[in-house]
Amino acid sequence: MTSLPLLSGQTDADRRAALNRMKWIATGALIGLAIIFVFAFALQERYPWLAYVRAAAEGGMVGALADWFAVTALFKRPLGLPIPHTGLIPRKKDQIGESLGDFVEENFLSDEVLTAKLAQVTVAKKAGAWLATPGNADQVATQGAALVRGLLDVVSDADVQRVAEDLVRKHMLEPEWSSTLGLLLQRLVEDGHHRGAVDVLVDRAVDWAREHPETVVDLVTDRSPSWLPRSVDRLIGERLHVELTKFLTTMRLDPEHPARRAIDEWLEGLAVKMQNDPETIETVERLKRSFIDDPRLHQVALDAWNRLKDSLTEAAEDPESPLRQAFESGLRDFGTRLAAGDPLADKIDGWIRNAASYVVTTYRHQATELITDTVSSWDGAEAADRIELMVGRDLQFIRINGTVVGSLAGLAIFAVAHAVLGS
């Protein structure tokens, strides 16, 4: 059995003192009526009017004793006697827990109640008004900065690197790239989006050829036979440079140049091979693996994470940092939009209602099971004692009321009987 949690509000000592005080008042009324009954019974022959007092006291004692028994039977056996149907809470706590769980599920978590309550949810406007109030956005930003610092302190660089590598391996290394890239390349070529890149390459080639004529001449000279005169080498190199420049210039100016069409055909063929040719697919996949497994790439990723972490830490600690100020300004603007009735507010309220409805409808049985299991785990005697602390003081008014009602009933019955039947 587990111990019950302390009741909130008043302390248990305060509750017990109030309970004992009400018990003494109710018991005192019973004792007082018993004393009155004794004197009235003894003196009613001398003073006949005391018969009415005796009847009232007698009825009051009966009512007080009956209600004392009823109240006491809830929490324990009266006078420790094994009377049936007494000590109900210690003996029936499991059934009480089940009934309480069913009551909560049927009356608080039912679809009808849930729909009616969620229809009244208007969280977004209230939250927006709160955010738009000066100082509140700063408070949220401060708490957010503290959360960011805490997360960055807790998160290990090694863990981040391991998670990043796992994600890369799962989402980038394992899937096949070649077919997807081939399809993408095919669409780009069909739509002509690659022509801009070809234009850039041709422009750069023309500029390079014009700016480096000696490079072309030297290239020819270095690769020509040694017996060929150098003047001839240079003449050939200069002529080759002129023809190359002319070819590239023509290619740049003519969108339908044969070289451009050759590039289009080559790209189209490459796209088809990347999707269907096993050898090309394997080549692309091998390049992908070599790229992702490159230690330099891992080091770049780790360096990027370290720089990002340092930047976030610095921004979180500095209230004047641009990132912090932008975050605060964004929160205030967001709150102002919501408070002004922006359509986004209705969407957010709808999201909240849907989320709350999903959570309650999905887990309401677990919630009621939690109530049932928690009550079942309580110790019976302790549960009765704690429940009596919570409601026992009010139950003592039942004893007092029973005493008063019993006295009035006894007096009325005696008076009617005396009037009808006589002495």
From TrEMBL:
It holds the Pfam family DUF445. It comes from the Bacteria. The lineage of its organism: Bacteria, Bacillati, Actinomycetota, Actinomycetes, Micrococcales. Keywords: Membrane, Transmembrane, Transmembrane helix. InterPro entries: DUF445. One of its GO terms (cellular component) is plasma membrane. Signal peptide: none annotated. It comes from Galactobacter caseinivorans. This is DUF445 domain-containing protein. The chain crosses the membrane at residues 24-43, 49-75, 400-421. The keyword Membrane applies.
